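Table S2 (continued). Query chain:
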Amino acid sequence: MENIPLTFLLGFFVTIVVDRWRNIFANIGFVDSVAFYISNYVLGTDEETRVIKRNMVRYLCLTQVLILRDISIKVRKRFPNLDAVVDAVKKWVGTVFF
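Corresponding output:
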């Protein structure tokens, strides 16, 4: 332990932890850009197309919540099970992409 300084070991450890955290968020992806693509490329103005677009974005939001539950304690406490997600959807006022 005398040969390797403690500050070097601590810096190495912090670098690994921060890189791991950054890689997790870089690989998650967020629904904003995909929702804009859906809005742009799923063409149509009738009711059926609007429902399809809305359902696609809902599935994206659900996927993001399920992924964030795995890495965030705060999100895990907010949504401990799928029933909590369903209850939150009933009260949720989302962003209008369409």
